[in-house]
Amino acid sequence: MNQSSPEPISAAASPQSLPPVRAMPASMQTSAPPGANRPIVVYAVGTFQRWMGRLGWVGFLGCLLIILVQWASLAQYFDTTGGIYESFHSGSTASAEKVAIIDISGVIVDGDGFVKRQIERIEADEAVRAIVLRVNSPGGTVTGSDYIHHYLTKLREKKPQIPLVVSMGSLAASGGYYVAMAVGHQEKVIFAEPTCTTGSIGVIIPHYDVSKLMERFDVRDDSISSHPRKQMLSMTRPLSNEERQLVQSYVDESYERFLEIVRGGRKAFAENPEALKTLATGEIFSAVQAKKHGLVDEIGFLDDAIERVCEMANLDAKQVRVVRFRRPEPLLAIPGLAQAPESRSELAALLELSTPRAYYLATSLPTLITSRRAD
């Protein structure tokens, strides 16, 4: 059967003039890809639509940023670590068992800060097998020093199986020595570096009398107080004999507390309190002198203290992971932003130290200290 070829269709022909279309047999039909016969429509996007699209993306990114900030705030609210982070110090990086170093450096002000966060971090970490207390501090306030000693003692009571050894750096005097007494009655647990200065067992309430200087420049203190004793530690007036006796009784009470803490940390002084009173005059001692008098056990460095605590915990110092903790650091190292919080911290410490109060501090000029706070 001959099949004629289809006639060409004129583009100007109307639909009514087109010849009828005959159905193609099923055997000759071929499947075309989807959309092959669909018209392609191109939409022209105007400037307004483009800007609206961009604003939509900006809004989406802004909402995402808000969600991230809210999430970070929520995480910070429930964070009990204060933002401190753990870092490797020495030993084996592959070991799951840890020796944790607690750092106490600088002036102790309130005790409820960086040191406490370290203690809480160790208390919650089941991998910690031993602790080294690294002290490099001239001391600080009576309350702050006692606060840290309290938390260290509490940690030892909660985890009596974890040994504690003290490593004294260049300075561990007064309140710095006070917190070291948390080791209790153990043998060979206080190490002092060869150049360490320690001791200074005593209490001081600084008072400066500038009343004569004020008279010279015709300056008068016209403060109004509820009682004359409210001003008894003011720099603008001398202490009367009665006021001096009141302050002395307060100092004596804090001093007795210091002696009690030392007796709790040094077995030899618990057995011979008079020997302690002979040393507890506020005098400072070198490492050699301190060992001779029984204030420390050994002269050695931080590594020696780590080896000793590993020995007490039946650990290999080379096979255990020794860690320490760091303070939180700013994300952006912009000098103005990075240094501002630290400056405020030092200013706060100066204001705290200039307040009339009792100190376990190895200096008679606490208002001039600008060291970084330990807590």
The CATH homologous superfamily is named 2-enoyl-CoA Hydratase, Chain A, domain 1
- SSE-based structural type: alpha/beta
- Envelope shape: flat
Low-confidence stretches: 1-15, 331-344, 367-371
Count of structural domains: 1
Second rung of CATH, namely the architecture: Alpha-Beta Complex
Helix segment tally: 11
Could you estimate the helical fraction of the residues in percent?
25-40%
Question: Would you write up a description of this structure?
Answer:
- The protein has 375 residues and is of the alpha/beta class.
- It has a single domain (85-219, 234-329, 336-368), classed as 2-enoyl-CoA Hydratase, Chain A, domain 1.
- The protein is built from eleven helices and eleven strands.
- The chain has helices at residues 47-77, 114-124, 142-158, 175-180, 211-216, 241-265, 267-271, 273-279, 287-293, 302-312, 335-353; strands spanning 85-91, 98-105, 128-137, 139-141, 164-173, 190-192, 197-199, 284-286, 298-299, 321-326, 359-361.
- The strands form two sheets. Strands 1, 2, 3, 5, 6, 7, 8, 9 and 10 form a nine-stranded mixed beta sheet that branches. A two-stranded antiparallel sheet has the order 4-11.
- Residues 1-15, 331-344 and 367-371 have low confidence and may be disordered.
